[in-house]
Fold this sequence. Notes:
The complex is a heterodimer. Chain A contains twelve helices and no strands. In chain A, 42% of the residues are buried. By secondary structure, chain A is an all-alpha fold. Chain A has one domain (31-287): MetI-like (MetI-like fold). In chain A, helix 11 (240-250) runs antiparallel to helix 12 (254-284). Chain A has helices spanning 5-30, 48-54, 57-89, 95-107, 110-120, 127-134, 146-174, 179-186, 191-218, 223-228, 240-250, 254-284. Chain B is mainly alpha-helical. Chain B has a domain at 70-231 and 263-278: MetI-like (MetI-like fold). Chain B contains 14 helices and no strands. The radius of gyration of chain B is 24 Å and the shape is globular. At the A-B interface, helix 1, helix 3, helix 4, helix 5 and helix 6 of A face helix 1, helix 4, helix 5, helix 6 and helix 7 of B.
Amino acid sequence: MYRQKYVFLLPGLLVLVAIIIFPLLFTVRVSFSSWDVFNPGLDYIGGRNYARMWADTRYWEALGRLSVLAGATVLIQYVLGFALALLVWGDVRAKRFFRVLFLIPMMTTPVIMSVIWRTIFHESLGPLNGFLRAAGLSAQPWLSDATLAFVSVMIVEIWQWTPFMFLLLLAGLMSLPREPYLAAQIDGAGPVRTFFQVTFPMMAAISVGAILIRLIEASKIMETVYVMTSGGPGTATETSSYYIYIRGLRDFQLGYSASLSLTYLIIMIISLTIIAKVMIRLLVKDRT
Amino acid sequence: MRTVYLAIKYTALLLWSSFVVFPFLWAFSTSFKTANAVTSGPKWIPWLQFEPSLQGWRSLFGGVGGTDISGPYLNSVIVTFSASLISLTLGTLAAYGLSRFQFRAGPIRNADITFFFISQRIMPPIVLAIPFFLMLRQLGLLDSLAGLVLVYIALLMPIAVWVMVDFFNNIPRELDEMAWLDGCSPVTTFFRVILPNSLPGLVVAGMFCVIFGWNDFFFAFTLTFTQTQLLPVAIVSLNSSVTPWWSLSASALISIAPLVLLAFVVERFLSRGGLAGAIR
C-alpha cells in the first residue's frame, strides 16, 4: 500500500531534477572550457576561467554594487511594508480599498513597469522633471548620472516589491493572537511600547522570513537594470546577473560566463545562509 | 494628540497611494497622446493640455506604426496557463507525498527534499539561462512555446510545492486515516478526500504560479528570437531610441490588466485569513 507514496513524489521530483540538475552539472563542465564564438565546444582548459574571474574587477564591483542595491532596497521595503501593513491593520476608513491598491504593484510585470518608469525618468519629456521644474527646482539627469541612476533603479524596485513585504507582514499581523494586546492594554502600555514589546517580538519570525525571501529575489535583480539603464552610465548600475548576461549571451563567452555564474550562485547561497543564521539568532531567539 | 495622529496616518496612506498610482496614471494619459503631445513635454490632462488620440490603442491591433500584440498576448496566455497547470499538478502531488509519507534515501529525509524543491527559487535566472539555451537547442525547442513551457515548469513548480506542503500540513491527518480505514488506497484517498478540500490552497498556489509565469521576462527573452514572442518581450522591444510612447503605454496597460484583477482575489483571501496558512 505504501508503495503508492512514490506515485505522489516522483513525477514532480524527476521533472525538476531533469530540468534543473542536468543543465547545472553541464554548466560546471562548461566552466572548465573555453567555449566562445570562435571556439564552440567542450575542450578542457583547467581553471583558467576562474583565474581570469579572480582578476576581473568589473565582476567583483558588480557583486558589491548588487549587495548594496539588494540590502538597501530590501531594508527600505521592509520598513515601508511594515508601516503600511500596520496602518491598514488598524482602524482605517476604506481599509480594503487601500489593501487592494497597495498590492497592485507586485502583480504588474516588472519589465513592463520599468519601461513605463523609464519614460517617467526621461530627462526632458518625463513627468518627474516636469514636477521639479514646476516646483522651481532644476531638472535632474535621472538615468545618465551615476548616483541618480542607482537611486532610480532603487525607486522602481521599492515601488514594485514593497507590496510583497506588505502582503507577508499583513498576513502575519492578521494571524496574531489578541490576548497579548489585552494584557498590554491592562498594563497601560502606549502604542509605541505595545509595538516594540508585543507586536514586533511576535512578528520577528515572519519578518525574518519576509526579508529572506525578498533578499533572495533581490539578489537576482537584472530586468529593471536592463530596461532602464542597460547597466549604465558606464557600469554604474550593473549588477552581477546583468554582467554575466553581457559576457554570456551577448559576447557569447559561454565558458567564462559559466564560471562567473557558478561563483555567483555559490556566493549567494553562502551569504544568504549566513544572513539567515544571523537574523534568526538576533531576532527570533529571544522570543523563545 | 489624536487628531495629529490621524492626520499623519491619512497623509502617509495618501502619499503612498499616489506613489503607487502615479505610473499607471502617467501611462494611461500617455496612451492617448500623439508624437506631438509627447515631444512637447510632460502633459497630463487630455483636451486641456493635449489633443487626445486613439492612435496608441489602435496600433495594438496592427495599426500604422505599431506592433500587433495579439499574437504575443495569446502566446503568453498559452505558456503561462499550461506551465502553471502542469506545475500545480506535479507540485500538489509531490507536496501531498511530502506531507503524508516518510521518504528516505541515505541521509536524505523529507525536509531535505522539500528544501530541494523550494531552494530552486534561489537560483538566479542567469545561471540557468545558458544551460537552458544549450539544452533547448539540443532538443530543437529553442524559440518555441513548448520549450518555454518546459522552462517555466522548473520555475513554477517550487512555488506550488512550497504553498501546498504548508497547506497539506494544516489538513488534519485523521481525515486520511479515516479514509484508509474505510479501505481507500492512498491515491483514491487523495483524489476523493483531500483534493476536494484543497481548493483554497490550490487557488493561492495557482495564483502565485500565474503571477510569476506571466511576469517573467528573462527566459522569454533569452530563449526565443522571432518565431515565438511573449508579451513582455514584445513590449520591451518597443523600447528603443525612438520609442512610440503612446503604443508602449497602451500595450503596457493592457498586458498588466489581467493580473491587477488578481489583487482583488488576494485581498479577499487575506481578509478571510486564508493566506496566513498558505504563506509562511
